[in-house]
Automatic annotation (TrEMBL):
SUPFAM superfamilies: TPR-like (SSF48452). Residues 760-1075 form the CHAT domain. It comes from the Bacteria. This is CHAT domain protein. InterPro entries: CHAT_dom, TPR-like_helical_dom_sf. It comes from Polystyrenella longa. Pfam families: CHAT.
């Protein structure tokens, strides 16, 4: 019995026994019990820690026992275990105090060994290492603490948190460098151990970053990992070790690729160049070694340069790499065929980009020969790479206008991949789809439109089936297939098209739009986003065309109008939404970069989810068929898991609220920029101010032109013939030429000449567009809110001819404008504050009548008029004051940048060639008018926007409305300074009397041209104009002698004139209101 009892005590210690060991501070016994598996193991370990915390002295014996503790948990071996079974003398322990340490380190820091160890052992090793660190700190033993930390980091990096392990290694390295002069035992060997552990971790970190971005589309996480890896290589790299240099350059290239995908081309270029230079130096240092790695880096850089629109530098870089690889390929074609063929392909694509198709043909032909040789040498083990080279070669032939040869190469490539039973199925289908699409383009150029359509349809079906079966996920190819197929199909559609043809067309178009949302979320490059929007403009137009054809197929007018308006709004707002979701420059450097990236990504995800739900919902609503009754060609593209989509959107919205709350902790006034969502027809009607107002919503495209007339009770769809868009574009070109011909060499407008040239163009435009609209307007309509589209933004509709002879449209209706329904919806949500506090930037010296205008502003607003001096600091002052004003007024210079609408600017200060400007992009990115209601840009070209398919919104009207204004007054062309001063004076006079800005401008324009306003007042002739000016004191107290003389001359001229001085529209019609009309 006693023997059994003893056996029980040995194998399963009792709680009382452990308590006694703790009281006696018998830490060796506790240590033994803490590593023997038994039910009270944790209690023994806690007791051991308690003893060490309370022990006044920790001896060398304890240190060796701790080392053995780590050794046991690293690998259970018989010699180590025996150390716990006998008592050693002090002499024996002294002989062991180095040896166990070395063996422990060797075992515990060997990464390959750690990888093979059981997970259960890893947890115990981490616990042991952390315990030793605490004990070593009490001992003051830096040596033991460092190596215990290394054990912890090694095991954590292999089986736990790799980024934390790398960060800790960098920290240890810095600590060692600081302490090494005072601690001789910590030497270069210790630092080398650190580097040895870090190297494989850093390589893994680079791989992990690539996976994080490619699989999870998590840019910010990938960026942080690569920054950490780059810092690690910078810390541990040994310039004398080529592999270290090579791995660091690999990390820098990975970071460069990531940056370029996110649109940060400048930083990406810097990292690419740095990596290339490192490898070039490595080639020199090793006397010709590592040439393949150097050429590979040049290939990566070539691809980047091509994507960033620098084809000439890409060509030079590719040629350098080709010269390096050619002799290597000659000696070993199998191992270097990939690199050389890829370089030739990059070279060819760059040559095509600068319109050198002959040279491109030579390079692509070289790539094909390399791939053909590889294909034959490897006994036809997969034709994927050969077919890719053939595809590029066929495209080069296409650019050389050798269509028949291109057709033959495409057919050969298609046959090659079709006969290939070795290439993986998803790759094979992907190649076939791409080949059919590009072959379709060649056939179209050969005027074989039916064959082109058939091949585009084949490509689309392949992509659709791959997506449905889940064998491939290539959003860009699916979108391209849908887009090209739709483009081939749309010209064949007409009122005679069958229901099946319309179903197929609508399915392809909707798939292109839906897939584009997937692509847009992951596209950070501005050029990439713009290219995406351009490619989609035809898709939206085609979908509207299909909807209008369905109008005569039993669909109600209300339903069709609802969808036409929604898709047109989507096409307008996508580009603007991208700008708003990605531009929070005011937060850069203030808010954590990771949080800012989360904000941008979450907004992009919400926008994409809204759009995808819309496309799905409205296709289901547009058909009477149930899902199970739909043909596959119609239903396959739909995302049918709507509850999951709604749940995901709800999660994104919650995430956005949480992000906003975190940012508000740092910036209390922060406001999330709006993500625009489609509006229902019922919601659009609710935005009408009264029953006497109608919306005129235009959509102008190459194959479809329509005006949707919306009133409280009715909706009308007015479809124009195809020639209408051609005619409006012709009028726009003539309009631009007439304006240019009316300006002198210095850019100053000759008002009289401009007035004569614009009139016939507006007569043509009015007859073209409004003759069909008038019959559709109810007799009760008195006001029109016009929503222009594309080139129509350039025209002042309010002075187009009315229904009655010699009348303008503004004589019969009150005319107001809005950029889009989405922008109007946002403006209507803002409360209108008092029109009391006005802010203006002081006049520019070369605009002489601005002194008069400023004087009148002071009269109107008194002490509530605040002026900022034109200095280099004025932009910062405006941003600071923007939250404390009601009205922002600017009458200085402004200019429109046709090449870059976002760069169109107000000029606040200039000195020679140096200017301080405030651009459209500045307004969108950095300013919030949280309390302001009205902006008045009484300056040159302040209201012009881009008459473009994608960038039509990028002008000051939309920018200021998005930035917080409720309504704005803008100018479409240069206006006479004196006329502007008088118009602005009267406008504010009427505004402060209680009229809305739209109404105040409408009455002011009538008054100026000599037509009685609602007060029965007007500038009916020259003397009446002179009387008004004198009554207001506009010309009194002028400081400038020359200006005073000019004013006296003008007054004398008016006194002798019997006609209204400003009767011509050129003096008043440039001004219009945009935003909320009432």
């Amino acid at each position: 019995m006693a023997k059994q009892a003893n056996s029980k005590d040995e194998n399963e210690p009792q709680a009382e026994e452990i308590s006694n060991f703790i009281k006696a501070q018998d830490w060796p016994a506790l240590l033994r019990l803490s590593i023997i598996p038994h039910p009270l193991e944790n209690q023994a370990e806690e007791g051991l820690q308690e003893v060490f915390r309370s022990a006044s002295v920790i001896s060398i014996w304890q240190r060796i026992w701790l080392c053995l503790y780590i050794s046991y948990h690293s690998v259970v071996s018989t010699p180590t275990w025996l150390l716990f079974e006998k008592r050693w003398t002090s002499e024996q322990l002294d002989t062991l105090k180095v040896l166990p340490n070395a063996s422990i380190i060797e075992r515990s820091l060997n990464i390959d060994f750690v990888r093979r160890s059981a997970k259960s052992h890893q947890d115990r090793v981490l616990k042991a290492a952390r315990f030793v660190i605490i004990a070593a700190e009490r001992l003051g033993d830096k040596h033991l603490s460092t190596f215990a930390s290394l054990v912890e980091v090694t095991h954590c990096g292999v089986h736990g948190d790799l980024p934390s392990a790398v960060a800790r290694l960098i920290e240890l390295h810095e600590d060692l460098l600081k302490s090494s002069p005072h601690t001789p035992v910590i030497n270069a060997g210790t630092l080398e151990v650190l580097a040895g552990i870090a190297r494989p971790f850093l390589s893994e970190l680079t791989d992990k970053a690539s996976i994080e971005y490619e699989r999870n589309n998590n840019y910010e996480e990938a960026r942080q990992l690569l920054l950490l890896a780059n810092l690690g290589w910078k810390t541990f790299v040994d310039k004398d070790l080529p592999e270290d240099v090579l791995q660091r350059s690999r990390t820098m290239q990975a970071y460069a690729i990531l940056l370029s995908k996110n649109g940060d081309a400048e930083k990406a270029d810097a990292y690419h160049v740095f990596a290339v230079r490192m490898l070039r130096q490595l080639v020199e240092d090793t006397k010709g070694g590592y040439q393949v790695e150097y050429a590979s880096s040049l290939r990566n850089y070539t691809g980047f340069l091509f994507d960033m629109g620098q084809p000439r530098l890409a060509i030079h870089t590719a040629e350098e790499a080709i010269e390096i690889v050619k002799p290597l390929y000659a000696r070993d074609p199998i191992n270097y065929c990939d690199l050389l063929a890829g370089l030739y392909n990059n070279h060819a694509m760059a040559l095509i980009q600068i319109d050198l198709p002959g040279e491109a043909l030579s390079s692509s032909a070289s790539a094909v020969r390399i791939r053909e040789k590889e294909f034959e040498t490897r006994l036809k083990k997969g034709s994927e790479k050969l077919v890719l080279a053939m595809e590029l070669y066929a495209s080069a032939l296409n650019h050389c206008h050798r269509m028949t040869e291109s057709k033959d190469v495409f057919e050969s490539a298609i046959a090659t991949i079709q006969d290939d039973d070795r290439t993986e199925s998803h790759k094979k289908h992907h190649l076939l789809a791409s080949l059919y699409l590009n072959y379709s383009e060649t056939l179209a150029k050969l005027d074989d439109s039916e064959a082109a359509r058939q091949h585009a349809e084949t490509a689309w079906i392949i992509c659709r089936d791959m997506f449905r079966q889940g064998i491939s996920h290539s959003p860009s190819l699916r979108m391209k297939a849908s887009e090209i197929f739709a483009r081939r199909l749309i010209p064949t559609l007409s009122a005679a098209s069958t229901a099946e043809q319309l179903d197929i067309a609508e399915a392809a178009l909707r798939m292109a739009i839906e897939v584009s949302e997937e692509i847009r979320v992951g596209t950070k490059s501005p050029s990439g986003l713009q290219g995406l929007e351009y490619s989609l403009s035809d898709v939206f137009d085609g979908l509207i065309q299909v909807l209008l054809i369905r109008l005569d197929r039993g669909r109600s007018k209300e339903d069709i109008a609802n969808e036409v308006l929604k898709f047109s709004e989507m096409s307008r707002m996508r580009s603007l939404s991208s700008v708003l979701a990605n531009d929070y420059c005011q937060l850069e450097g203030v808010v954590d970069g990771k949080l800012l990236a989360q904000l941008r990504d979450t907004q992009a995800n919400i926008s994409a989810m809204n759009n995808r739900l819309f496309y799905t919902d409205h296709f289901l609503e547009s058909t009477d068929l149930k899902i199970e009754e739909m043909s596959k060609v119609t239903a396959d593209f739909l995302i049918l898991e709507k509850p999951e989509l709604h749940q995901q959107r709800h999660q994104y919205e919650n995430d956005l609220k949480a992000i906003q709350k975190r940012i508000e902790e740092q910036i209390p006034a922060f406001e999330v920029l709006n993500v625009f969502t489609p509006l229902e027809l019922s919601e659009i009607r609710e935005m009408l101010p009264d029953e006497q107002t109608a919306f005129l919503y235009f959509h102008m495209a190459d194959r479809v032109a329509v005006c949707v007339v919306v009133t409280h009770a009715t909706v009308e769809l007015i479809e124009y013939p195809q020639t209408t868009r051609e005619e409006t574009q012709s009028i726009l070109r003539e309009w631009a030429a007439a304006y240019q011909n009316s300006c002198d060499s210095g850019g100053k407008l000759n008002s009289m000449r401009w007035g004569r040239l614009m009139r016939p163009l507006l007569d043509r435009l009015g007859n073209l567009l409004f003759d069909s609209v008038y019959p559709k307007l109810p007799n009760s309509i008195q006001s029109l809110i016009i929503v222009p589209h594309r080139e129509l933004h350039s025209f002042p509709f309010h002075i187009c001819p009315g229904r009655q002879p010699y009348k303008f449209l503004c004589d019969e209706f009150s005319i107001h404008y809005v950029p889009s329904f989405s922008v109007l919806s946002q403006c209507l949500k803002r409360s209108r504050g008092p029109m009391e506090r006005m802010l203006s930037v002081r006049r520019t010296a070369d605009l002489e009548f601005l002194e008069i205008e400023e004087k009148m502003l002071t009269v109107a607003f008194g002490t509530n008029a605040k002026y900022l001096d034109s200095t280099p600091e004025v932009v910062h002052q405006l941003r600071a004051a923007s939250a404390e004003i009601d009205i922002f007024h600017h009458s200085g210079h402004g200019y429109y940048d046709q090449d870059d609408p976002l760069n169109s600017s107000l000029v606040f200060w200039e000195n020679g060639n140096v200017k301080v400007t405030f651009s459209v992009q500045d307004v969108l990115e950095t300013i919030k008018f949280r309390n302001a209601t009205l902006v008045v840009l009484a300056c040159c070209e302040g209201g012009i926007v881009q008459p473009d398919e994608v960038d039509e919104h990028f002008g000051f009207p939309t920018a200021f409305l998005v930035a917080g204004m409720k309504v704005g007054v803008f100018a479409m062309w240069q206006v006479d300074d004196l006329a502007t001063a008088i118009l602005v004076t009267r406008f504010y006079e009427r505004l402060l009397s209680g009229l809305s800005p739209a109404r105040a401008l409408d009455q002011t324009q009538r008054w100026m041209r000599g037509v009685p306003d609602d007060l029965a007042e007007c500038l009916e002739d020259g003397p009446a104009t002179a009387d008004y000016v004198e009554k207001m004191g506009m010309f009194t107290g002028i400081s400038d002698h020359s200006l005073r003389a000019d004013c006296e001359s003008v007054l004398k001229h008016w006194r002798d004139s019997e006609t209204p001085p400003f009767q011509s529209p050129v003096f008043w019609a440039a001004f219009f209101t945009s935003g909320v009309s009432q």
